[in-house]
Amino acid sequence: MSKKPTPKKRASHAQTYRRYKTFARKTQKRLFNAASLSVCPKCREKRLSHAACPACGDYRGRSVINFSKKIDKITKVKA
Description:
The protein is α+β, with helices and mostly antiparallel strands and about 80 residues long. The protein has one domain. The protein is built from two helices and four strands; from the N terminus they run H-E-E-E-E-H. The longest helix is centred in the first third of the chain and has 20 residues. About 0% of the residues are buried.
């Protein structure tokens, strides 16, 4: 196992601070863009951008998820 080299001189406060702030800025940017929510124009519920609304099933002005089919399948029970 190789040993890591030791620094010749002490790193200044500005150099340490700059290294930390660069890392922090990248992390904040990544976390901020992780999940962007928007408002559904039909039902005003929060939903993910570029995805169908989980409450009403609309996407870009048209219905893409039909909730009545899911309800029919669940309510019909064979005895």
